[in-house]
Amino acid sequence: MAVRHLVIESIETPDGDRCVDVFRRADNTYGFEEYRRDLEDTRGWFPIAHHRDTIYQNEADARAAAKAKVSWLP
Question: How many whole angstroms separate alpha carbon 71 and alpha carbon 74?
Fold first, then answer.
């Protein structure tokens, strides 16, 4: 069974080919992941950066790490 996280925010590039999800896990820790999609591919989003396993104790730390590691985030 796949682990589900509560996505707090999904931030997408203007052209819609990348996004970052900031999420909360069931144990109340936080994380983020970067995804990509090819608009002509209907299978959806694919994780590309493998950040999802890093644990942050709060949302602010997860967001700060995402901004530091994902160059296109504002």
Answer: 8
Region 4-20: mean pLDDT is 94
CB 35 within 8 A of CB 43: no
What's the confidence (pLDDT) of residue 48? 93
pTM comes to 0.87
Q: For the chain, what is the HEC assignment?
A: CCCCCEEEEEEECCCCCEEEEEEECCCCCEEEEEEECCCCCCCCCEECCCCCCCCECCHHHHHHHHHHHCCCCC
